[in-house]
Amino acid sequence: MAKRGSVKDLLERTKNGEALAASRLMSKIQWDNKTAKRMVSKLTLPDKTLLIGVTGSGGVGKSTLINKLIHYFLKEQKSIGILCCDPVSISDGSFLGDRIRMQEHAGKEQVFIRSLTQRQNFKGASPEISYLIKIFGAMGKDVIIVETVGSGQENLGFREQVRALIYVTSPDIGDEIQLFKGGVIETADIIVLNRSDSPKADQAFQDLTTHFGQSKKLYKVNSLNGDGFPELMQGIKEVKF
Fold first, then answer.
1. What's the pLDDT band for 102 if we cut at 50, 70, 90?
2. DSSP 196-225
3. How far apart are alpha carbons 230 and 55 in whole angstroms?
4. Of 183, 133, 132, 181, which is closest to residue 155 (Cα–Cα)?
5. Residue 229: which of 168, 171, 158 has the closest Cα?
6. Residues 6+ positions from 38 with CB-CB distance below 8 Å
7. Cα–Cα distance measured from residue 38 to residue 238, given in angstroms and rounded to the nearest whole number
8. Does the predicted model carry a pTM greater than 0.90?
């Protein structure tokens, strides 16, 4: 029997779905525990796991959109793991704004939310991201959602970390579409225009359709009231990975 609190013990308890053990194992990964990294690296993410990446510029409503996705996945009786990459503050702490926006789900047994401090620039996500995804897989999570900061060229490699990539934008994009075309939006499976109640939403969606309508799945949603989410949920499930 493994010693209580050892990496082996934490991993065994994580496989039994114990959230506290998983949290401690994730902390060891973030503390660069070599034994934890070695053992977790051997894990394989189940093929059936829906691993979704959500990215886009700051302020477009990524966290609010994820909060609504959690709501819909819970209606389907899914178990969900969320990884939120927070920007590092001047004091080297993370803002943890993502967790605050998802607070309504924080105490639910089926939902595990983990915020990560982005201490290094690693393809738009924390350098430990692949390990933490595998830990959620070991817990038996049906759905894993990873939110990243930023939206430019530095995020291109994040495409390799997830099975379905959602790019979120807002009606205030304006001429930025031309800039997006050389960035991570080109690698996304799905483009979501949030805040569909904005007076600018129809024109923005038309612009997106003109540029990406032949190559991407496009959806217009309102993350506050759920407009457009049934269609988005179906689109996510149709992504081939």
1. low
2. TTSTTHHHHHHHHHHHHTTTSEEEE--TTT
3. 20
4. 183
5. 168
6. none
7. 34
8. no
